[in-house]
Predict the 3D structure of the following.
Amino acid sequence: MGDSLFSIAGKTALVTGGTSGVGAMIARGFVRRGVKTYIASRDAKRCRAAAAELSQEGTCIGLAADLSSAEGPQALAALLSQHEERLDILVNNAGANDRSAIETATPEDWDFVQDVNLRAPFFLVQHLLPLLRAAATAESPARIINIGSIGGLHIPNWEAYAYGASKAALHHLTRALTKRLGADRIVVNAIAPGPFPSRLTDTASEAVKKSVETYIPLKRPGEAEDIEGLTVFLASRAGGYVNGCTIPLDGGYLAAL
Ligand SMILES: NC(=O)c1ccc[n+]([C@@H]2O[C@H](COP(=O)([O-])OP(=O)(O)OC[C@H]3O[C@@H](n4cnc5c(N)ncnc54)[C@H](OP(=O)(O)O)[C@@H]3O)[C@@H](O)[C@H]2O)c1
């Protein structure tokens, strides 16, 4: 009985940025639980290689797409539509960072971060609505999971203006989508991770280690099973009534500030 409550087997998912870091952890968690999982990133070769590796545990397909362009989300939705008529789970995870100081930040860097972190999730939802609606039922709503950041919930000790603003806006967008899409039986949540090992965050660096030790009550960075557990929960029947939330996944960091 408990197993079916948390089961996601037989569903179909798209994880943007599923070739690396947090997205790869989420994708692996889905694949090994019987979810047909599409992963997308800019680099076609890396997509193929990551999909082949994940396919050792189930079914994973790589789709190349650049989500920083205005056309990228529509192009990715069109690619997915060639393979699928329904989509149960969309994870908007692909992200970009910029740590420019206030004196040196440029409009180009600002736009790039907003385009990948905020514009792409919105327009991917817009273009994937037909597939999400086709999968959604009252008993089993479709799910959208936006990967935000604790950087969108507090002001860090370093400068990250474009990044923090994009993630705060993504959390806000999550609530706006929740309000609109409930009628379509689509559940929308965001996860706000603290530090997890990835290309964006080198958790082995002395600076990150020191900050983890100082600020995170559990004294460790996030691990694959932490993000895997929360995304599987949100995608399963067990998480079906959690809607419109931004859930910090940070070992207690925000609570202890
Ligand atoms: N790691 C952390 O500590 C942490 C903390 C809080 C929030 N997050 C969030 O978690 C998400 C994943 O980040 P990560 O840390 O796992 O970083 P990562 O290891 O750099 O992974 C980013 C992924 O996104 C893809 N990507 C980047 N730009 C893209 C674009 N324009 N179009 C399509 N795909 C793109 C990358 O593939 P390509 O480069 O091949 O395109 C890669 O697969 C981000 O939204 C990030 O803000 C991470």
